Amino acid sequence: MKINNLQEFKAFSDRSAQAMDKQKKKVLVCAGTGCVAGGSLEIYNRIKELISEKGLLVDLELDYEKEGIGVKKSGCHGFCEMGPLVRIEPENYLYLRVQIEDCEEIVSKTLINNEAVERLMYTAEDKVYKAQEDIPFYKKQTRMVLKNCGSINAESFAEYVAKGGYQALSKVLFEMEPQEVCQSILDSNLRGRGGGGYPAGRKWQQVLKQDSEIKYVVCNGDEGDPGAFMDRSIMEGDPHGVIEGMTIAGYATKSTAGYIYVRAEYPLAVERLRIAIEDARKHGMLGENILNSGFSFDININKGAGAFVCGEGSALTASIEGERGMPRVKPPRTVEKGLWEKPTVLNNVETYANVPLIINNGSGWYKGIGPENSPGTKAFAITGNVNNTGLIEVPMGTTLREVIFDIGGGIKDDKKFKAVQIGGPSGGCLTEEHLELPLDFDSLKKVGAMIGSGGLVVMDEDTCMVEVARFFMNFTQNESCGKCVPCREGTKRMLEILEKIVNGKGTKEDLDLLEELADTISSTALCGLGKSAASPVVSTLKYFRDEYLEHVIDKKCKTHTCKALASIVIEKEKCKGCSKCARICPVQAIEGKVKEPYTINQSKCIKCGACLEACPFTAIKEA
Amino acid sequence: MGTMIIDGQLVEYTDEKNILAVIRKAGIELPTFCYHSELSVYGACRMCMVEDKWGSTITSCSTPPKDGMEVWTNTDKLKKHRKMILELLLANHDRDCTTCEKSGRCKLQEIALKVGVKKVRFGQEKKEMPIDDLGPSIIRNPNKCILCGDCVRACQEIQGVGVLDFAYRGSNLQVTTAFNKSLQEVDCVNCGQCRVVCPTGALMIKKDIDRAYEALQNKNKRVIAQIAPAVRVAIGEDFGLQPGEISMGKIVAALRKLGFDQVFDTAVGADLTVIEEAEELMDRIQRKEKLPLFSSCCPAWFKYAEQKHPELMENVSSCLSPQQMFGAVIKEQFKKEHSTDERENIVIAIMPCTAKKYEASRPENTINGERQVDMVITTQELAIMIQENGIVFNELEDEAIDMPFGFTSGAGVIFGVSGGVSEAVLRYYYKERNASTLKGISYSGVRGMEGVKEATAEIDGRTVRIGVVHGLKNAEKLIRKIKRGEEKFDFIEVMACPGGCIGGAGQPIPQNENVRKLRARGIYKVDKSLPIKRSDDNPTIDALYNGVLNSNRHILHRDGKH
């Protein structure tokens, strides 16, 4: 049904909100990629079936009048470590690691008899956390952008509207001039969430200023950092939020069409966006003359083929145009000549998702959250050796310690914290001394790291930092588009040297050469990705130089990560001389007499570890 | 307009598009691999980096000048980075310089020397990618490619052909054709503009020097040379002479020293083409059919038209190119003159062009199974032969071409430059033989270096509209306009290479607009010096029509059509 004007929109909005209230209980089954992989869709279907059997099921899209229980496929709740997750409202219970067998109990106990199923709830130090909001993982979070993720049906237009969706769009269309919208975003000091932190409002103003009949709004959903999934979760969980933000940007810059560039590896995000765009069109929130305001705007989805470099603006627009995704030299900048050489606003998913919030609540409100120069919240994907991995959102300025220890629950298996890689392959490694550092654009830049898109990989004491640097360099080299010499050839040589070092063949001079290469690459590479390609190496060399030196001089890797540097020894005292190890050794490196302690000839040993596993007396160990 | 501060020195700029041009104007030579003023700015080699006053490094090729802008071009930091970038390029390059044909002309070698790379600290990787030498004109050796993308842009931006592009990522990046096929198997038109811009030995002319030596040494072969107009104004560049300097007499002398039995001028072939094509055009105008008529002398254009516009082939002139016409005529003439002679006649064409090799090898360009032209040697190959044989080119005494094709007209010579075919045809149409008519024609719009030119002539009370294009991308644009009905022409001259044959890929490098302008000037100078201006005034031509071509004119046309 098409909504033709503002009155009709208001009526639709009110009716949807009222219908939402008639759902006396809501079951939100997480349908983010992680939980889906854990079987959440079966759980969703089962719960729906059980409620249906009892005649209590209502669907907001179909029934406005009926009271009952709503069952919804929601976006990512964030606590991915504990999935599949099921949230029950209004009690706000959060059930963890739900299995298909648990469904009946959930329905009969919680939904019919209002009892909690405590065995499915978060428990720590003998305390059962019933309400989701009380769980430490959530307690320190401020979920604004992710608010709808986990609280509405991600595939329902009506539910988005019921929660105040598209009110920001109707406000700008009928109450604000394009210039005012730009100014409002500028006043909020919303900075680009894709990594650069450039003020979105300024970008919009620059595009508005361009004299061109055709302009474009492009959304960068090509999230490529290893371990990062903030944008994916937003697109999956709140696709209308992104669409509304983009449409507002379209109005503010007098653009006519929008493109969302999503990786094809995000099929669920693509599907949810597709449904949302279709629904928005059907209801008249996209297309010709939106709400009879005179403003027309539509959005297309472009699927990327999984090239990391296509997250760079000019490579992204080239890819949409059907060209090879390679960054181009600037000027001209994207705001002047972007997609198809037309002025283009290019922001990332999370940036657009912030826009409706700012319009609805005002730029003053937004500016009040977090530090003045980096206001608002930031979503992070926290992974690695931390107890609670998942998707979180905190006000900018939250310290690393709060994120890792309070929200993330500290390091797994009570190990010691060693470092955190922030900002993906373009970012840097931070250490213990940075734990009090507030997470915002400027503070991180000062220490050679960046927020990037928001990936946080936590590492414990057993992580080899040289190997970490090698891992990221391998990623960057594979993902370099190959256009400019320093990035293409330089990263290849840096990787070569790092491989040499982890294989025990590095020299002290190699470290100087690494630094020299890093200097040339960061000063001369063509695009931002190339310029930051060496950051993981530079930051690990800065904070963990000892570890590098240990690898190249002592030929040791104290974390036992670099196999080539390990030496395997037999403890004399424990060895009974059974000869089993000598027999299993593929290179005859173990010598000795039966019933006397054996020894390993280190020059022959290839460190395969076969003897380690074979020894019945655990007399063999890595040293 | 404005003033920049470069290395502390005030430099004014006017319409320079980037600070690299301003820097070079100031007399500072910045090395570049991927910058060509005639191609789009690519910004990949990073050699032209300069430092601004805040210490940031920016590429000068992609930065427009600004009034008061201050840059430094050779700071210690920049020198260090340039050295490192070159070291990285060299580490990845097949460094068999001593046996590389490009040695001495290689930009990588030249810049490495200038920048002072003394040592490569990275291990050399032996790349062993297959060399593509299947085609008749160009050899592609990916092992020598430094991935500057110049060829990719030349093929795309000058010719609109686009057979080369990048594939794969990171250090696996390659310049290649679709599905890594041979150039012969894709739509390559053999124009060779890729090799003109290639800084290294990755794209080279496929040389026929050894085959030529073999023929020259064979006592049973009579080796006959024909020299294209554009060769005489360019070959000197390989011997330190200025572009445009006329060396025809020296070329003739050198060829005789190399052992050629007969030496002729392809301009005679061009005279035949003028007459045949002018009559074909007039005939079509009178019948009002198959217009516009497209010229057919450029083999790269011909192949392009066959591939991309087969529907236009009936609009393409049935005339063979001057090279092929002349080859056919020479073979017929010598067959007649030396009917009892046991020696085999071998025609070697000296051409500014790589596509001519392909043209000579086309199966239909034969008479009774015998090739009209047996082989094609480019300007650059001839220069190599001269050097290899210890001939001191600059000291040669001028010699004249042989009879019976001893006369050349100005109309035949100007074929070597874009607009020349049209001008020659117009000269043929205007019956008045005075200087002001000639001058009028030269000012009609056919001359000049613009990509698309137009001229209108009144002939026998009819208005004839002529279009002149060089660069196949320009040709494509014009064809689209014609198809949309936005333009109407009677005759269109198409040359694939910038500036026409003088800018051919067989010519010495480097080439740029300035070099081409000087070569064109040389061509017009030759025209001025020749007493015969019109093709039909050339006595050789008369003799031919009354001799070997008598009732034999069909050998001058494609498929014997006439």
From TrEMBL, chain A:
SUPFAM superfamilies: 4Fe-4S ferredoxins (SSF54862), Nqo1 FMN-binding domain-like (SSF142019), Nqo1 middle domain-like (SSF142984), Nqo1C-terminal domain-like (SSF140490), Thioredoxin-like (SSF52833). The keyword Metal-binding applies. Keywords: 4Fe-4S, Iron, Iron-sulfur, Metal-binding. GO terms for molecular function: 4 iron, 4 sulfur cluster binding; FMN binding; metal ion binding; NADH dehydrogenase (ubiquinone) activity. It comes from the Bacteria. Residues 566-595, 596-623 form the 4Fe-4S ferredoxin-type domain. Coiled coil: none annotated. PROSITE patterns: 4FE4S_FER_1 (PS00198), 4FE4S_FER_2 (PS51379), COMPLEX1_51K_2 (PS00645). Pfam families: Complex1_51K, Fer4_10, NADH_4Fe-4S, SLBB. The keyword Iron-sulfur applies. Belongs to the complex I 51 kDa subunit family. This is NADH dehydrogenase. It comes from Ruminiclostridium papyrosolvens C7.
Automatic annotation (TrEMBL), chain B:
Pfam families: Fe_hyd_lg_C (PF02906), Fe_hyd_SSU (PF02256), Fer2_4 (PF13510), Fer4_7 (PF12838), NADH-G_4Fe-4S_3 (PF10588). GO terms for cellular component: membrane. GO terms for biological process: ATP synthesis coupled electron transport. Its cofactor is [4Fe-4S] cluster; [2Fe-2S] cluster. InterPro entries: 2Fe-2S_ferredoxin-like_sf, 2Fe-2S_ferredoxin-type, 4Fe4S_Fe-S-bd, 4Fe4S_Fe_S_CS, Cytosolic_Fe-S_CAF, Fe_hydrogenase, Fe_hydrogenase_lsu_C, Fe_hydrogenase_ssu. Keywords: 2Fe-2S, 4Fe-4S, Iron, Iron-sulfur, Membrane, Metal-binding, NAD, Repeat, Translocase. It comes from the Bacteria. Residues 77-116 form the 4Fe-4S His(Cys)3-ligated-type domain. The keyword Ligase does not apply. It is found in: Membrane. Residues 136-166, 179-208 form the 4Fe-4S ferredoxin-type domain. One of its GO terms (molecular function) is ferredoxin hydrogenase activity. Belongs to the complex I 75 kDa subunit family. This is Ferredoxin. It comes from Ruminiclostridium papyrosolvens C7.
